[in-house]
């Protein structure tokens, strides 16, 4: 009988982990709490490190076919002046690919299609996880229970598994920012594949997709829990003087399509990503602010690294120790860099500080900016072959 694993959570990290484990010969069951796979979320940018991980999982080509390369764009000031320009071709020459933009729902679908038939169970909430022997973990799901050689906790920033196995950790905290986002109802004419615009305590950005639609997001520095009765009207008011195509993107959006979430993060790093035969992965392990666009990419790195370690080591315990040693320093460093980027970007509000930042960005050579990006993108995955 082969090794068995239960993956808690059917998001990007959980699906990727299940695919990786299956490629290494494991029998995998994915438990997803939601009864309906709505694929909540708007769009996502995948950098070279995430795409390389997807290549190892055997789904990279399909993801690229469904994505649009981000060759043009950059960061702008509210009136439209450029602070930095992105050179997607230079990035492609350096790491083999530009950043790719894809609807989150499309990425979820492509990952699910790689799972073995019958391995995904929806509407299944995990109520308890317990190590019941030196090599066995029990997962309780209401009136039923599963036993496995390994449990992968990919149940997001509010991870119930993390709370159970690391009860002393303070958990997620509010980052100081809230985000509204949506995908336009129809195609919108935009001049760049990807843009960020930084104002005082506010950011607006978009990602263009293959079909001409675009994902937009608005990040605001507001008290936690702030909500608007009419989000689109509020955003039109806040961004009424900002450059095109900000208002055009808002006007192309159905009100019911707008998602609004506070941005929370695991500001206190976890002391370990593994406890016994339970491995934490993705947002459950290192939820970070979105300022570097690395959240999903780090989860994909986790998935491939975990699967490779389990294939390379002689025991599960040794593999989990290797996974923790390889993933915790890198992912926590990326999370710290994302937090710092947020403080220097959207969260900056004092006029003098904003002016100094903008001047510094305009004076930074494009090659230097590309080198900063490569610090996080230039990751080479272990082989799953």
Largest sheet: 7 strands, mixed
**Contiguous runs where pLDDT drops below 50 for at least 5 residues:** none
- Please state the CA-atom Rg, rounded to the nearest Å: 21 Å
Count the E strands: 19
What is the name of the CATH architecture of the domain at 4-69 and 100-173 and 266-344? 3-Layer(bba) Sandwich
CATH superfamily of the domain at 4-69 and 100-173 and 266-344: FAD/NAD(P)-binding domain
Distance between the termini: 22 Å
What tags apply to this protein structure?
7-stranded mixed β-sheet, 385 residues, alpha/beta
Describe this structure in words.
This protein is an alpha/beta fold and 385 residues long. The protein has a domain of 219 residues: FAD/NAD(P)-binding domain (3-Layer(bba) Sandwich). It is built from 13 helices and 19 strands. A hairpin with a 2-residue loop joins strand 10 and strand 11. Helix 1 runs parallel beside helix 5.
Describe the protein's topology.
Blueprint: E1 4-8, H1 12-23, E2 27-32, E3 43-46, H2 48-56, H3 60-65, E4 68-70, E5 73-76, E6 82-85, H4 88-95, E7 99-103, H5 104-113, E8 120-122, E9 128-133, E10 136-141, E11 144-148, E12 150-153, H6 160-165, E13 173-183, E14 194-198, E15 202-208, E16 214-221, H7 231-238, H8 246-251, E17 259-265, E18 274-275, E19 278-280, H9 283-286, H10 295-312, H11 316-344, H12 351-363, H13 366-377
Parallel strand pairs: 1-2, 1-12, 2-8, 5-14, 12-19
Antiparallel strand pairs: 3-7, 4-7, 5-6, 9-10, 10-11, 13-16, 13-17, 14-15, 15-16, 18-19
Helix pairs in contact: 1-5, 1-10, 2-10, 10-11
